[in-house]
Amino acid sequence: MTTLSVRVRNPVWHGGIVLFSLEAANGQALPPFQAGAHIDVHLPNGMMRQYSLCGDPADTASYRLGVLLDPASRGGSIALHEAVREGELLQIGVPRNLFPLEPGAQHAVLIGGGIGITPMVAMAYELHDRGETFELHYVVRAGNDAAFRALLDATPFAGAVRYHVRDPEGTTPRFDPQATIRQARARAAQPCQVYTCGPVALMQAVERAVAEAGLAPSCFHQEKFSGDPVTGGDTFEIMAARAGVRTTVGADETIVAALARAGVKIKTSCENGVCGTCLADVLEGVPEHRDEYLTEEERAENDQIVLCCSRSRSPLLVVDV
């Protein structure tokens, strides 16, 4: 896996969120990226976590990140917040994009809830540079949660941003997914594409609003921070072909845990079926996909599996590890 050495620049804390830039340690330009991309950040404690790039894709001098200090953190966001200091050296992966904008001129409705605003900012930059129409909705729980407001107010697309905050005075409107999607479809001269990232409840409400507005399912796009995989199920056999190891995966055990128990260590990162780090080829058997990484088309082919959360529909599953 290709890694880049970068230095932390201009960190700013706003409540539980830190905003900062990353510049190449050698002073050169960073690899270009498209809106919706994320990077793997290798943390000092040995963990690796994925964070969406929220800067201008046209700016290769630095990458911009915004990271929430998650109260339910398993060590990732805590370690990163502790490592974010001016001049600190970090290792990152090259940008990868699992949440791209659709090609072609189509009106885009961007909806970011809380820290889910991060990929939406990069999308807004790219759409503005393309000259395409869009609207960006920033949904937060309280006025002081709007850590990105100063950043958004300084962008060339500030006029396309709409804030939805449940403030005590009630001066800022609450977010209404149905009205937002319905009005956007009525205004747009082109087909609508809806992109959302944030709390699960928000994304589900947006998905329902898209359906109620009569838009095709293909017009709805979401990015999840973490999956909610269910590990329970029937027991089955897993065989790591290259390692020559065969073992049983228990009813409440993951494939990764079963293989580790048998002496085969699988590299993981998110452990929630989101990042694809533990993706493996399927040589025999039928996987039961429970991840958020593979597309529906890739799932239908049944030749790959995300080992941290998925299971098997067949008594034996043989994987290329």
Automatic annotation (TrEMBL):
Keywords: 2Fe-2S, Flavoprotein, Iron, Iron-sulfur, Metal-binding, Oxidoreductase. Residues 1-102 form the FAD-binding FR-type domain. GO terms for molecular function: 2 iron, 2 sulfur cluster binding; metal ion binding; oxidoreductase activity. Residues 234-321 form the 2Fe-2S ferredoxin-type domain. The keyword Flavoprotein applies. Pfam families: Fer2 (PF00111), NAD_binding_1 (PF00175). PANTHER family: CARNITINE MONOOXYGENASE REDUCTASE SUBUNIT, NADH OXIDOREDUCTASE HCR. This is Oxidoreductase. It comes from Komagataeibacter xylinus (Gluconacetobacter xylinus).
